[in-house]
Amino acid sequence: MFHTIHPAILNRMHQLEQQDAQDRVDGTPRLQRLRQIPPDTGKFIALLAANTPEGAIIEIGTSAGYSTLWLAVACEQAGRTLTTFELLPEKVKLAQETFQLAQVADVVTLVEGDALEFLAQMDDIAFCFLDAEKEVYAACYKAVIPKLVKGGLLVADNAINHRETLQPMIDQALADTRVDALVVPIGKGELVCRKI
Question: What pTM, to 2 d.p., does this model score?
């Protein structure tokens, strides 16, 4: 899968990696930073998304679209599409630029707004990548898990580096009889929940 990534996607990934690294050292305010996943986490979620059952592939928290590009690679390989949700207008603008430059508009639908409002109308989710403000994780978990198809996955970022904030949701997932769940020590830690 990774040996055939289109050069336009690789070029935009590289640009975003450089910008994210710069944001982390130059004093860019937290909400304006890209705060994106590292490349190994991108590969991990792409591998997972490429092997999910039939159903919707979604992302909650687009930022500039870096993780979206990894998921788009999986979707292109599998002949599927992806819907990604972003609240902040400045991040929506960056993501639109990313999807145009990376030439993935045919597989990615960007929705500006609160994912929780849209989730109420969604069914049959096969894969959800959650990387938003940590305060909404519990509400997103509550909204997504009942909508997952059998074998569907919810992957939540920052399960290690924001463990203290996310501990109640992680504990809930690990005890939830609807899913098999574990925290995978890759990148900043990924909580992976598979619908039983």
Answer: 0.95
